[in-house]
Amino acid sequence: MSTLTPDLAARLPGPEWMQARRAAAVERFDDVGMPTEAEEIWRYSRISELDLDAFAPVLDDQDRGVPPDAVPAIETVGERSGLVVTRNGRVAHVELAPTAGAGAGVEIGDVFDADDGDGLLGSVAPSSTDAFTELSTAFAPGGALVRVPAGVIVRDPIVVVHWVDADGGAVFPRTVVVLGEDAEATVIERYQSPDVAAFVDPVIELDVADAGRLHYASVQDFGPRVWQTGYQATRVGRDAHLTSIAVALGGDYARLRTDARLQGQGATSQLMALYFGSDSTMLDFRTLQDHAAPQTTSDLLFKGAVADTAKGVYSGLIRVRKEARGTSAFQTNRNLVLSEGAGAESVPNLEIETNDVRCSHASAVGPIDDEQRYYLESRGVPPEVAERLIVLGFFSQVLERLPSSALAGRLRERMATRLGAEA
């Protein structure tokens, strides 16, 4: 590739330990090469259409502060305990409310500035996961860090906004969230852009220590010419609980791979997603519920709708290892196809290595139920309004679990507008 070279990686800012990692990651990427649709994990994708040479890392020093166009993404969340804003991958603004627990050691900022940043970055998401985590390690110019010490409870959400406005940019946002033992926090991430052509490669690491409780949500609302290849890795400790909700509304091709590892006995992971594609967007989700300890529980619910010529893809695996006796694992994917030119794929899988388990998976792809439509229309509801009500009701199970009611309301309005309601 002419744009993502070792020389460019070496010119990016960062501590000395990061420079060594970058050089090694570029070399590994060159060895691995780009993935193809022939690989099962990339089946049904459009990865062969991605031309990385069309994008270049953002090397110039960006203006600090909150970009004015990013303010609505912040304000829709409501009350917050802290805020981190990155612009084209660089941390541009940090604030922590006095009531958020700063005196108790709550830390937000740039992971490159942390004394132990070398140990934090990549501790949950190893660089060798796939080609795009290698690229992230090679070219990330910084990363948002949220760390809550043991026993500390942060009441209001900590908001992380990743703003991408470099036309032709290759952008590599990183997020590291670390909860200590018996800590509790809510983190809400927003991925936003104007109408620019960009390649965005986010990597998110969520590390929940024993008895910790993390409520996490991400909202991807990129412009129509953005390509995303995202990776979210989670590690959940003994008797800890993670709730993770992903919302995807934008992009040309937007992919999110989620690997959820239940590492400690009694760990619980709830994974949810809401995705709504229109025009020619393709939204691609891959998940792994990885049970590596006894008496662990995972529950996945992904709901998607596609209209116009949009495509949706879901492929998920429940893996129960030999040592994970007493596992309970569930996986459900439902898809609504709203137009003749739209389409969706749903591929659930199980890989079980022990007998003492409760596991199930279910998937469905189809149009709006005729009986639901008839019920509403027979009571005088116009057809276009009936469809909108059915789709919003279909998504309500996920919207109601978002950790911000203000954000849920805004997303509901956004989808209603897409479905033809007046703004």
Structure overview:
19% of the residues lie in helices and 39% in strands. It contains 8 helices and 22 strands. A hairpin with a 2-residue loop joins strand 2 and strand 3 (90-96). The chain is α/β, with parallel strands linked by helices. Helix 2 runs antiparallel to helix 5 (131-139) and helix 6 packs across helix 7. Strands 1, 4, 5, 7, 8, 10, 11, 13, 15, 17, 19 and 21 form a 12-stranded mixed β-sheet that branches. The protein has 2 domains: 6-264, no CATH class; 375-423, no CATH class. It has helices at 6-11, 16-32, 71-75, 117-120, 131-139, 370-377, 383-399, 405-418; strands spanning 56-57, 82-87, 90-96, 107-110, 144-148, 158-163, 169-171, 174-179, 184-192, 198-200, 203-208, 213-221, 226-236, 241-248, 253-262, 268-277, 282-291, 297-306, 311-320, 327-337, 343-352, 357-366. The termini are far apart.
Reconstruct the topology from this structure.
Layout: H1 6-11, H2 16-32, E1 56-57, H3 71-75, E2 82-87, E3 90-96, E4 107-110, H4 117-120, H5 131-139, E5 144-148, E6 158-163, E7 169-171, E8 174-179, E9 184-192, E10 198-200, E11 203-208, E12 213-221, E13 226-236, E14 241-248, E15 253-262, E16 268-277, E17 282-291, E18 297-306, E19 311-320, E20 327-337, E21 343-352, E22 357-366, H6 370-377, H7 383-399, H8 405-418
Parallel strand pairs: 1-7, 2-6, 5-8, 6-9, 7-10, 8-11, 9-12, 10-13, 11-13, 12-14, 13-15, 14-16, 15-17, 16-18, 17-19, 18-20, 19-21, 20-22
Antiparallel strand pairs: 2-3, 4-5
Helix pairs in contact: 2-5, 6-7
